[in-house]
Amino acid sequence: MVFLKRLIDPQYMVKPDQRIGDIPSAKSVYKEAFRMAWPALTESFLVMLIGSADTAMVGQLGTRAISAVGICGQPRMILFCIFFALNVGVTAVIARRRGENRPDAANRTLRACLLIALALSVILGTLGFFLRDQILRLAGTQDDYFDMARVYFTVTALSLPLNALCMTITAAQRGAGNTRVSMRVNLTANIVNVIFNYFLIFGKFGFPKLGVLGAALATSLGTLVGLVLAIISVCKPKQFIRLEFHGSWLPDNEALKAIFSVSSSAAVEQLCLRIGFLIYARLVADLGTNDFATHQVCMTLLSISFSFGDGLTVAATALVGQNLGRKRADLSIIYGKACQRMGLVCAAIIIISFTCFGQFFVSLFTDEAYVLTACIPLLWLAAAASPFQIAQVITNGTLRGAGDTKFVAILSLVCITILRPVLSYVLTYPLGFGLIGAWFGMLLDQILRYAGSQWRYASGKWAKIKL
């Protein structure tokens, strides 16, 4: 009982020399963390759950279709990575401005980032469209599903500006603490996606039967709906985050400097992440269509478990940034740790779900006998990885919220870009473990990132960064 009290009581989460003011009660801390986290956690979980319906519906078309959509994942993320980085800065800076109670500065930041997102998305979307064949070959796309992958990736590239603008607005809302807005936007977009998946993949209610192309068009339509809702959310008067069309839209130096100080390192991190994940996916794709389909289904299930960490990360990022803006670094430490404790509960749920019901979940995506058998050891490894994965995602989110993106970038470079591909390759091919070897590589990567992020968090250096 003493250990449990020390684990969850905020009074024990900061050292005496770190205290700046009164420490709130455990009830108050967890209530505030939960208030901020539940919309983001619900959003992340349901978006992943609904998004997995994409794979389940495409799975009805066979393993080639699953592989075609799955192989586009990492190339898509490479196109998105600059916007993920930009939005790390958006959330961190606006959270800090919220803590400082400076709405004008926050809204100047939003306007600047929307202009940057629009310009970059048009450029990257155009490059993605014209270089789609080379990108897909680099990702390891096999000939038997190349044409389907090409169709899916083409639509993805053309719809990039819709994604970029929507992501920027919802990132700003999260930084301001409006996690419910982001939840409503993304849930609605994904529900629209699933509905039109059904219509367009299978040709229901008079719609044409388009297969993989239908899945891509449905995704883009859902994104368009989400963007409209996101714009509406920042057009309301008398709120902290609002988009004003009168006056100058020219970015000011303060906004650009603050965003660049966070997003530049986050961009390096994202590039490291995407290169590492692309190499990792390529290693698995070279095992063949059946193994890659198995990998893709299990990764879809694993992404649902990621959603717990992602949701709590949103809360940690916002609360840390806001309290640093209020000059309460001690409360930032406490809220970061409180979100980590909540993550442990989520990890326990995932472990039970994957070990007891894993094959049932896979059967919702496909009835292929090979996939149903091969998935079992992969989900056991996913269960083993979940406590480390959730904890490191939340901790790294805390570091980003404080602006400590340089360390997170270095950690990603070492663990994801270098160690994960190297370990996975050695285990998969020279040592002959095949697909299981690749997943062991993923488990080792999660453990190493957990250890690195915890060491940095304990140092307290992140709490001294100025934005």
Describe it for me?
By secondary structure, this protein is mostly helical. 80% of the residues lie in helices and 0% in strands. The chain is built from 16 helices and no strands. The chain is globular and about 60 Å long.
Which terms summarize this structure?
467 residues; mainly alpha; single chain
DSSP, total strands:
0
Portion in helices: over 70%
- Class from secondary-structure proportions: mainly alpha
Number of helices: 16
How much strand content do the residues show? under 5%
Quaternary organisation: single chain
Largest sheet: none
Average pLDDT across residues?
86
Low-confidence spans: none
Shape: globular
**Order of helix and strand elements from N to C terminus:** HHHHHHHHHHHHHHHH
- What is the alpha-carbon Rg in Å? 22 Å
Distance between the termini: 40 Å
Layout of secondary structure:
Elements: H1 2-8, H2 26-59, H3 63-71, H4 73-100, H5 103-130, H6 132-138, H7 146-158, H8 160-175, H9 179-202, H10 212-233, H11 253-285, H12 289-325, H13 329-363, H14 369-401, H15 405-428, H16 435-459
Helix pairs in contact: 2-9, 2-12, 2-13, 3-7, 3-12, 4-5, 4-8, 4-11, 4-12, 5-7, 5-8, 5-11, 6-7, 7-10, 8-9, 8-10, 9-10, 11-15, 12-13, 12-14, 13-14, 14-16, 15-16
